[in-house]
UniProtKB/TrEMBL annotation:
Residue ranges, compositional bias (Gly residues): 48-59
Biased composition (Low complexity): 88-97
Protein name as catalogued: Peptidase
Species per Swiss-Prot/TrEMBL record: Brachybacterium avium
One Pfam family cited in the UniProt record for this chain: PepSY
Length: 240
């Protein structure tokens, strides 16, 4: 009887132990699987795969790239844009001496602006002086094209065309050139050598078939004088 009772207990114990071993084994196996499933982020081999996700455009890797691109764009675009803009030109004062100071818009540039505005034409007159009414230095350009005479006022500081009048051309004046055979600076130098003073303006046009500069000079001791210079011969005439 005792053996009969003990045998089942051993069998039950053995069965229980076997079940425990199986359960432990199963539990370890499940843990290994779980660890294998969760370990990729921790194991070195899996970390390399995670790096692949970074290379492949994961959210964590793309954000720094976007930030860098944004920083570069801000540096290249926002930082450089103000520097690329040309500073506003300073207007010359009303008492400026054109013999020693340069206007922001040169004579050559004023003629270009006028020609672009009209769409062509031949230059027959150029004049620069300070317009007291508008309080600015202004170019007065006359162009002839297709039987019409275009008179343009151009701000010598900004290059803005402030007035453009068109009339019929009956005069057929000779064409003039501010670059040849005599430039404005050359004419001003000749005039100041003859009559020292402040150059307050000048004009290039034709009279009686000859092309000449007329340089306006304010004398230091008061009064003003005009020095006319023939661009072809260099002859000088003083009108006071």
């Amino acid at each position: 009887m005792t053996r009969t009772i003990l045998r089942p207990r051993r069998t039950a114990r053995a069965a229980a132990l076997g079940a425990l071993v199986i359960a432990v084994a199963a539990g370890c196996g499940g843990t290994d699987q779980g660890e294998d499933g969760a370990a990729p982020a921790d194991e070195p081999g899996t970390s390399q795969e995670g790096g692949g996700d970074s290379d492949g455009g994961g959210s964590e890797s793309s954000a720094p790239a976007d930030d860098d691109a944004t920083d570069d764009a801000a540096s290249d675009g926002g930082g450089d844009a103000p520097g690329e803009q040309e500073p506003a030109a300073d207007a010359l004062p009303a008492d400026a001496d054109l013999a020693t100071e340069e206007l922001p818009i040169s004579a050559e540039r004023a003629v270009e602006i006028a020609t672009e505005t009209v769409g062509g034409g031949d230059l027959v007159q150029v004049e620069i002086d300070y317009d007291q009414h508008v309080g600015a230095w202004e170019w007065e350009i006359e162009l002839v094209m297709d039987g019409s005479q275009h008179e343009l006022d151009i701000d010598a500081t900004t290059g803005e065309v402030t007035e453009h009048d068109v009339d019929e051309d009956d005069d057929q004046d000779p064409v003039v050139d501010v670059t040849s055979p005599m430039t404005p600076s050359e004419a001003i130098e000749i005039a100041v050598d003859q009559e020292p003073g402040r150059v307050s303006g000048w004009e290039l046009d034709s009279e009686d078939g000859s092309i000449r500069y007329e340089i306006e000079i304010d004398r230091a001791d008061g009064g003003d004088i005009d020095v006319e210079i023939d661009v072809e011969t260099g002859d000088i005439r003083i009108d006071d």
